[in-house]
Amino acid sequence: MVLLLRVSYGQTEGTYLPALECSNYNAFLTGSTFDSLKYFTDTIYPSGIMRFDLSKSQEYGGVEDLHSLLGVDQGCTFELINTVSSRFNSDRKYLRYQQYFDGVKVEGGGYTVTAFYIPDEPPGDPCAVAYMLSPHIVSGINLSVQPRVASASLDSILNGSVIQSGNQLSDADVVAELVITHNLLNNCEYYLAWKTVYPHEGTKISWVDAQTGSVLKTVDGQINLTAPTEIYGNQNLNDNTLGNTTFLATPDGRVVAFDFNGFPNCISRTIADFAGAVTPSTTAATWTIAVAPASMYQSFFVASSLVPVFDGVGINFGTINVGIDCPEQNAFSLGGSTLANAFIVIGGNATNSFGVFDAIGHELGHTFLNDFLNSNNVGNGSLHEGIADMIGTYAESVIQGMTDWVIGDDLPALATVVHRNLESPAWDCFTDVSGFTEIHDRSEPLGHWFFIISQGKGNIIGLGINKAINIVLESLNLMGVNDDYGDMRAATLAFVDDEFGPCSLEGYTVRRAWNEICVGPSDYTDCFHIAGNPWVCEEDDALHLWIENPAQGAVYWWTFPIEWTVQGSPGNPSGNLYVGNHFVVTDFPKYNWYPKYFNIKVYSPTLGSQFNQFRMVKLRDCNGDDPTCEEYYSLQGGGGGASEDRSSTVDGQASERHGKGIAVLKVHDIVGRLLYSGNPEGFDRNSVSRSGMVILSYFDGSGGFVKSEKILLLKY
Known about the structure:
Blueprint: E1 7-8, H1 34-38, E2 41-44, E3 50-52, E4 76-85, E5 93-101, E6 104-115, E7 130-136, H2 154-163, E8 175-182, E9 190-199, E10 203-209, E11 215-220, E12 223-226, E13 240-242, E14 245-247, E15 255-259, E16 281-282, H3 294-312, E17 319-326, E18 330-333, E19 341-347, H4 357-369, H5 378-400, H6 412-418, H7 430-433, H8 439-442, H9 444-455, E20 456-457, E21 460-461, H10 465-475, H11 485-499, H12 505-516, E22 529-531, E23 535-537, E24 543-548, E25 557-559, E26 565-566, E27 577-579, E28 582-587, E29 596-603, E30 613-620, H13 629-636, E31 649-650, E32 653-654, E33 664-669, E34 674-678, E35 692-699, E36 705-713
Parallel strand pairs: 6-8, 15-17, 17-19, 23-30
Antiparallel strand pairs: 1-11, 2-3, 3-7, 4-5, 5-6, 6-7, 8-9, 9-10, 10-11, 12-18, 13-14, 14-16, 18-19, 20-21, 22-24, 24-28, 25-27, 25-29, 26-28, 29-30, 31-32, 33-34, 33-35, 35-36
């Protein structure tokens, strides 16, 4: 299966350079604000993906309050463009933000927030819980956003530099958007450009310098496959009958077939061609080849069969428009194709069709991936190709009830031309292909990585294709549009570490599979796993987590919210630090609303901080007698929480015991050592021997927790 991305250039383009190697991409990682940013996080991965410290979540109003620490330029804003629900955790949502500079879209810039609550109110809603951040922030933008080249002149520019001869463009043919590009020419530079989409030998995308009028870069706007195929045979079709006429369209309208036999080829087709094409229909009791060739029925049958497969993994197409039987052995996902309105073209002839399950699944996969990845360089193009192969292979496995790893294998002649085998690829090591410019060749190690996490290899245990594809699809939410192999590795590891743990089976398998294809190393040798159910009922006042298979002689330190009562630490004499293999909570304070989310950190001084692990604890109101966050603030008469007294919160979470009065103060240092316990008026700050952060916890006369606060004591 050959996927071609033909690229031509109007400017000199340098050797491919991944965006992550640009000093103006996620520059905060090496900037002066990095240490300050770490205060608000539990973990920052080398890629920039970070997990927030939830105990500090209300020390700032939202991610926008951290923009200065993230190196966001003056004039930059971020707009929410998409919200995606997790496939693994019903509480988890991904909010994808696009970066703008002075109101102009910055291609490749933005970030994704992983949240456990999606507020109806603007940022700053006290109910919002931002948990992780995947940044793709570009900085140092210093250019005028006022174009000197008018959009009305773009047709003339493209006619002169790209079209040159043949059918000339008119102004109506060109769809243009003013953008700021980053690293478009592999030089880390910014250009103010008109991004244009227009018909020419199919669909083309060109970036025209909005100041000089020169064409910076041109790429194909559609991604295609080339090879002959054979038909499956007679199949019952999910067609639609209206009156006495049956149409080659599904009753729900989600798949519609169009006869493209009258076009001279497939490669020059655009979305506009669908308007003049006919959907085959018949008044007979059966479909016959007198109405349409068997290849037409096969492609419709395959596309309509794949819709519920995609639905099953959260890829919900609106309408899939299938242009079938253009006289060329080829297939395309057209430029402009979206999840809501997909357009694909399937070639064929009287005896052969490209409508096989993994091929059409691959094309629909490209349409889905357009929301996550560009395809304008060899890096993101390779990911597009490799992940589309994964999606096509998965889709075929669901339909056929078994998994094979040869693309196009339903017809041996097709498989021979395609020459892509995820189990036994021509190249299984990324270092062998990193310099390739052919993206389908460059993608082969990635397909093999997917085979390994699915089926295993050597001492690597496979997870099965269902879990494997969902890990891939989930990790896309943490990726940027210009990502390459290394970025995808970082995203998959960040996800499995958080969802399953770095030393879980999933963590081991994904890490070692990356090592196997020469993208690493990334192995945990002295590992431990936090076991137990972290989602508990607040009414039960019980939580039990433990270290599974602890290393011999290793010691484990657990850090937890200071207001919890932990077995083995009566009255919490060690503050929020517990040492042992089993962590047992016997009492939670009463919070104002539920659910509540907390991070538990486990550190082993025996193994070292590089093996720190975290477990998210969710405290639920199982009997439904307590308000949700929204209900609580509604009862308080506030929508934005502006009247909240944050000094009366449990690490920002209000306690119902607040009105009982304060009788006892306990003071701990940041590692949990008790510095003072007694009358609040008796605490002498000068008694603390050194500078540092301390935690003040207040209790009422019955020992009930009231509030806590953190203060910085400075000794001169």
